[in-house]
Amino acid sequence: MMSKKSPQLRFEGFTDDWEQRKLGDEFKKVNERNNGSFGREHWISVANMYFQDPEKVQSNNINTRTYVMRIGDMAFEGNKSSKFKYGRFVVNDIGNGVVSELFPIYRHNNEYDNSYWKNAIQIERIMAPIFAKAITSSGVSSNKLDNNHFLNQKICIPPLKEQKKIGSFFKQLDDTIALHQRKLDLLKEQKKGYLQKMFPKNGAKVPELRFAGFADDWEERKLAELATMNARIGWQNLRTSEFLDEGDYILITGTDFKDGEIDYSNIHYVEKERFDQDKKIQVQDGSILITKDGTLGKVAYVKNLPGPATLNAGVFNVRVINSDETDSKYLFHYLKAPFLLKFADEQSTGGTIKHLNQNVLVKFPVPLPGLDEQKRIANLLESMDNLIAANQRKLDLLKEQKKGFLQKMFV
């Protein structure tokens, strides 16, 4: 007897159970070869589902060593990841083209809604049990799909009318997510443009882009002339057993950095004697922190500090020497920009830097206008960061909402 189920969340007017069918009733494996109809401009990048730049298509066998992938077809990509334990299917929603013969192609037997299947076929809770019975391993990072075992597995499918309703809903949601992603990318590009134009380069005395009313030449100063920088030295290093879950003295580590600030939600603490050990690494509001190990060059500006705090190893405490000369937020934004890591990389020997050395940091050149201009620049960049963060939160919320709908609208 055919098993039937229904999802937790449905559109009004749909009450019938979904039918559980064999995948072989819905799909067939196809090996359609290119007969010359498709050229390099039709080469599909399966992982992200877009047409590859023809100039970057390397294959000389586009006619014989490729499969045709048509709208609605789905290709199995066997690369394992944290999100997809066994690999995943990718549905073609961009147009007819060709893919490498490494990707098995499956085509619908019945009428279908492409937007519905694009989402349904990537739900891990549905597909992982199917793949678990249909995968034959072919390497450490990639899996191979056994066609017969796969097509013999079952999946719950709604009628076409409900597929279209669900598909339309997710198409609109995906379009909204894509719109916000483009907006976020544009904001990041705008900020990148400001960073390129608002600071002098190539020995110039003034930047290309400037606020009205400012005409004086900028100075170039070494970071050591503008700020002190200190870190926990070797003999002071803390053992993990000294990290406390609660206490009066906060311990800030490089893992507490988030979007240019300190995330206090999972902070650790230390005993008073460890806090008192070195006043130079005690942190205050207005301190600028820079990671020197692990993920290099992450920068955070300390504000709203909930209590006395010190640093773990691997983080520099940077404090402005003279606030009448240097605005701490201006210095923070300049250190957070890509200039610091570029400079450190140029100063390093033996390849990629693995440690941000203080001897390099003290020599880092900082372009310095007058204090009022510094504050105007810092305010603009902070406004850009706030706008980027707000759009990122909105995008993250939309993605979380989609995740919730995927859990409730499919069986």
TrEMBL record:
UniProt keyword list: DNA-binding, Endonuclease, Hydrolase, Nuclease, Restriction system
Domain Type I restriction modification DNA specificity intervals: 86-188, 216-399
Source organism (scientific name): Lactococcus lactis subsp. lactis bv. diacetylactis
SUPFAM superfamilies recorded: DNA methylase specificity domain
Entry protein name: Restriction endonuclease subunit S
Presence of keyword Nuclease: yes
One annotated GO molecular function: endonuclease activity
Chain segments annotated as coiled-coil in the UniProt record: none
UniProt-listed Pfam families: Methylase_S (PF01420)
